[in-house]
Amino acid sequence: MSEFERRIYNFYGGPAMLPTPVMEKAASEFLNYRRSGMSIMEVSHRGKLFEKVLDESLALLRELLSVPENYEIMFLSAGASLHFSALPLNLLHEGESADFAITGIWAKKAMEEALRFNPVKKIYDGEDHKYTEVPELDDSMVNPGAAYVYITSNNTLLGSRYPKFPKLTKAPLIADMTSEILSRKIDISQFGAIFAGAQKNIGPSGLSVLIIRKDLLGRSKRTIPVLMDYALTAKNKSMYNTPPTYSIYMSKLVFEWLKEKGGIDAIEKINEEKAKLLYDYLDTTSFYQAAVKPSSRSVMNVVFTLQDKNLESKFLAGAEEKGLVGLEGHRLVGGLRASIYNAMPREGVVALIDYMKEFEKKA
Amino acid sequence: MSEFERRIYNFYGGPAMLPTPVMEKAASEFLNYRRSGMSIMEVSHRGKLFEKVLDESLALLRELLSVPENYEIMFLSAGASLHFSALPLNLLHEGESADFAITGIWAKKAMEEALRFNPVKKIYDGEDHKYTEVPELDDSMVNPGAAYVYITSNNTLLGSRYPKFPKLTKAPLIADMTSEILSRKIDISQFGAIFAGAQKNIGPSGLSVLIIRKDLLGRSKRTIPVLMDYALTAKNKSMYNTPPTYSIYMSKLVFEWLKEKGGIDAIEKINEEKAKLLYDYLDTTSFYQAAVKPSSRSVMNVVFTLQDKNLESKFLAGAEEKGLVGLEGHRLVGGLRASIYNAMPREGVVALIDYMKEFEKKA
């Protein structure tokens, strides 16, 4: 039995499971990258070995997401929270306002951080119905003078997502896609910028990706800390400072794996099938309950509860025994959650459903 | 022959060589961390597996550097450049000034970034003698009203360092120790704060460490981007957001290795021996030249030139053939540089000297 066969199914919200072939490839060259006698982790970011990794990773991401030429792609250190601060600093003049659609906790956090630097306006708040659905946005909701409209495309904690994105003309749409980037087809040209922390569908934590329309770079003339300055990062091709080299290397392996699997079209189909299996089962029983409205359900994070909440810890313990880990909901919302990102194979979802059925029967 | 025997000697300035036993340990549990069936890279930062890693890493660092109780230790995403912006934002009131001793390019960069947010004063500038020595600082040089005095303790590019640190009473001393942290004994109580990017003596790039006197936290009441807010990071025990979990895991392995080796006392002795071997050889010949004044010489970065600069590329190519890589100087200064951080074994330095002698003879 290879060590890897002991692998279990990991449903963590993030840092999350990475594709098994990616992990195996990374393990195989961990100590000796391409016969260099060194790990890719140990080489200078200015050396040929790493520069090739960086270039290839950026090119693969551009290809996978069909990013138009008038958009920059860059890597930054740290995750989405960096952009919560960086977006107002880079895109808003002093005193200028941005619009926020609040569909969950991350959008709220992003708005609160922006508010420390600029005025903000809420154009939607799902609090009344406990964020169980997402709105249909359109130009009529955009406030006059709003420099951008901010959304969280997939709500990791609550298990909802925008089934489709608006084509706004009154202000650029900015989306936090941390928990669903690379999982579904998107038309980049509908967005002013998208960003994502790496730790769900891209690679290890401590890295984020930003895709931004070039004309938005340098829009504000404010004093921005260097590592949050999008224009400076773009100008220096993600190498203003020493980037998180190993995380970028891992991201390249993930992009290669995804391309080989058939790209976004192929993974989107697989993701929809996986999610459908789980939701279809949830819809057949009242033992488990999924609160999110069907049309707003996330394909990445399936959030549910037990009708009898007292059974939760028993459910989680039993799952762990079966090698199904990370099913606890986010500490801010409780309940249960199965994060089924790109790396989760169909078999993992099937194993989870089998366990859920068994648990229901026994209870 | 194990794959690892093909390892070469890597003199990169950073990201740099990591200790061979650390790399082997990391490789051995890369796919399956402690029989969890997962990589430590793939688990939630809020789960027990990672929280233990984080706690242990912070505790080891406190132990290795004998950090007093009145200092916080924290991890932040990104390297030293983050602190170039974060220091003025966290420690200076609007309009308040800080003092800078310019002993090289990194101190200059830190000062220039601080200057974007606050007034700064230079209390020393080694430009006239091309930064070939570092000053002896004392209270008499500190400007009235300076909120802190900033130094770069070791100058990676130029190969100089402070042989000893001043005991200032007029303002706290803040030191960028990126390229020498954990390489020599220091008395933390002489400093208001020290920080270091991880990619030389700690672990992979994309992580930094900050050790700061608790009374300095929250000193400024400014609006600081969340990921740069030291007080917020401390309050959240380095987990305000998802930290770079794998890099923190690697840092723990490095700290364990260092402790096992005998801690800072032991490594300092080894480091001094390694550097002495190299400098002693450089002092016997005019074929190679080391510009830095002997009392200011770095123990981590040995910077030298060839008397005949035309031989540089031949020197580098010959070195690579011998498995000695990364000897080119920093792109901003040129010349040659052997970075001999904690991870570089004595044998690597001996192999380098052998090659240098041979090259000299043949030339």
UniProtKB/TrEMBL annotation, chains A, B:
Family: Belongs to the class-V pyridoxal-phosphate-dependent aminotransferase family. SerC subfamily.
Keyword tags: Amino-acid biosynthesis, Aminotransferase, Cytoplasm, Pyridoxal phosphate, Pyridoxine biosynthesis, Serine biosynthesis, Transferase
Organism of this sequence: Leptospira langatensis
Protein name, as recorded: Phosphoserine aminotransferase
Record flagged with keyword RNA-binding: no
InterPro entries per the UniProt record, alphabetical: Aminotrans_V_dom, Aminotrans_V_PyrdxlP_BS, Pser_aminoTfrase, PyrdxlP-dep_Trfase, PyrdxlP-dep_Trfase_major, PyrdxlP-dep_Trfase_small
Residues involved in pyridoxal 5'-phosphate binding: 80-81, 106, 156, 176, 199, 241-242
Purpose of the protein: Catalyzes the reversible conversion of 3-phosphohydroxypyruvate to phosphoserine and of 3-hydroxy-2-oxo-4-phosphonooxybutanoate to phosphohydroxythreonine.
Keyword Transferase attributed: yes
Domain of life: Bacteria
Gene Ontology CC, one term: cytoplasm
Enzyme class: transferase
N6-(pyridoxal phosphate)lysine: modified positions: 200
Binding-site residues, L-glutamate: 46
Subunit record text: Homodimer.
Required co-factors: pyridoxal 5'-phosphate
EC number: 2.6.1.52
Subcellular location: Cytoplasm
Catalytic activity: 4-(phosphooxy)-L-threonine + 2-oxoglutarate = (R)-3-hydroxy-2-oxo-4-phosphooxybutanoate + L-glutamate; O-phospho-L-serine + 2-oxoglutarate = 3-phosphooxypyruvate + L-glutamate
